[in-house]
Each structure stands twice: as C-alpha cells, then as structure tokens.
Design brief:
By secondary structure, this protein is an alpha/beta fold. Strand 4 (about 95-100), helix 4 (about 115-140) and strand 5 (about 145-150) form a beta-alpha-beta unit. The chain is about 35% helix and about 15% strand.
Length: about 350
Amino acid sequence: MSQPLDRKVVIVTGAGRGLGRAVPLACAAAGARVVVNDTGGAIDGTGVDEQPALEVARQIAACGGQAVASYASVADRSAAQSLVELALSRYSRVDALVNNAGIARQNMIWDMPEGDFDAILGTHLKGAWNCMSAVVGPFIEQRHGCIINVSSGVAVIGAVANTGYTAAKAGVIGLTMGAALDLGPYGIRVNVVFPAGHSRLDGKPEPWRDRYPTHPRAPIPADRWPPEAVPPLFVYLASDAARDVNGQLFACGAGSVSWYPTWRAAREITSNDPVFSYDELASRIPTELLADATNPSPHRAKTAYGSGRASTHYPRRTTRSRPNDRSPTSIRATGPPTEQTRQTPDPLAPRAERSTG
C-alpha cells in the first residue's frame, strides 16, 4: 500500500467521532504519525470525555501505527499551543494540521443567546486560528507545512437556525485565503475543504423545530455517504504531491471531489458617470444585474412570525442561482459506488441542512 505520508506528523482536531475520526485513521494508514485531538464533549461543546480520542489512538496503534491522544480545547489558545508542543515533544516535528473541531448550537437568530454565538465562533473560527498561530512557527522554521481547514457549503448558502455556524464556517474560508497569502512564500500551503458524509450531526436533537416547523432534515445514510469517502482528499493535500496546492477550496464525499475557483462577478453594470444615481440603480439592478436571481426565502403574508417570535409555516427555500463561473470542477471516482443514488450533491446547492464538517 502506498505510504504518501510516511514519517510525517499530522495533527487532527475534532478527531474522535464521525467524519473527523476517519481522517486520522486514513492519515495513519498512509504512514503518518498522528496527534488525535478531541475533547470528547457533546455536540454543543459541553462536557469532556477522553475516550473518543483515546480509542482512535489505540486503534491506530493496534494497526501498527503511531498516535497520541489529546483532549485540549482548541477554543483556548494556550491549549492549542500545548497541542503543537505535544506533537513536537513526542515526534520532534509537525508537518500538517487539520482543523476539524467544531460544535453545533442551533436557534433562530432572535432566539440565539450571545454566549452560544460566541461559543460557536470560538471553536470553529477562533479555534482554527489558535491552532494555526501555534503551528506556523515550526512550519516557518522548516520552510514547509500544510494546513487543511474544514468549512461547509452552508457558509455560502446559509442554513435555517444556524447563523452562528454559517458565520463561523464562512470565516474559516476567509481565514484560509488570508493565511494562504501570508504563508505561501514560506512553503506553507493552506487549503479549505467542504466535506459531506454521515456524522453524528444526523439525528441530533433540534428542539427549535418544535417552535418553528420547517421541512425535516434530509437524511445522510451512512451506506451512501460513508465517512471513509472524505479523508482521501485530506491525505492527498497533506502529501508532497500537493506541495504547490495553496489557497484552494474543495468539496468531497461519496466518490466525488470538486474544486471551487475564486469568486468572480457573474454580471456587471456600468455607468458613464462614476457615481450611480438611485434611480438608475433602482431601474437596472433588478432588470440587468439580478435578472435571473431568486430570493432564497421570500416573504409570504401567511408565514409571518407573529410578534417576531413564532412561526408555524416557514417559507420553502427557492432555487438560488449561482454565477456560472463559480460552478465547481468535479471529478468522480471510477470505482463503486456508481449508482445514481450515490451522486454527491453540490455543497453550494440550495439545500441548507446537510451534515458537513
């Protein structure tokens, strides 16, 4: 079996369960020594349990690999620093960082406590930054390194009752692109991935639906969306074969890998005068600039929340148009599964409640 990560040291956060668990196992199978980080807490980030990370590390060791478990919270900067120090003390080097740690606290924007919003950003966005800032010192010294940040397609299309999650995952994209520019000259590459697959987010309690009924979450069956379909891309990005891949956005899952080019305007309107008048914008934006755009959640008189606090019929999401030049380039695995039911939906398609990341 090919060992593209032979002797490399890879840190994976959020590595104890689901999609995150599949990544360190794949990296170890590819020859890497792995730091398996997970607090083992609940989906909302509360609690601590050492077993998830420890079990992954033990599974790697049982297969002849090398791994060490960490239970540090990436939301704490000093804890994130200790994670890197653990890799250096145990293996004397670090070659790649996978920022996968995350939590979920769902609520409509008017019901979400500030503390929940802060906790989500603290783990997904600040946590990624904490780990990146801790690892870039060794990376710069050795003039190479790889950072893979996990985001989600909902970062650019939104998701009902998930303003915190969508904001955090959108921030991860910006963090990735900015860091790619900072670190590229030092031989350090930074990329972002939208993974799609079965995880423990499927079937999680969603009490907000009792107050605001919406269309039920579409299931992500494990047999059609196995977690093991996600990590091959991570292994490739962490390998020397991807040494020139930097500042890119990918999606993967169920036998498909997609690449999303940088954002470009789909359409432009211009004026002879450098300052548009209101009347010109009011006339030309709807007829020219947004001629084929649709509102993803239009107002309907019978769906008002009533005092801004209640709704029994949330409006259906409508199809959102996307710029043609933002459509992904996709490749599909040649082996099974090939049946139509296994095809990977576009992570930027307007179905906001996919389990990702």
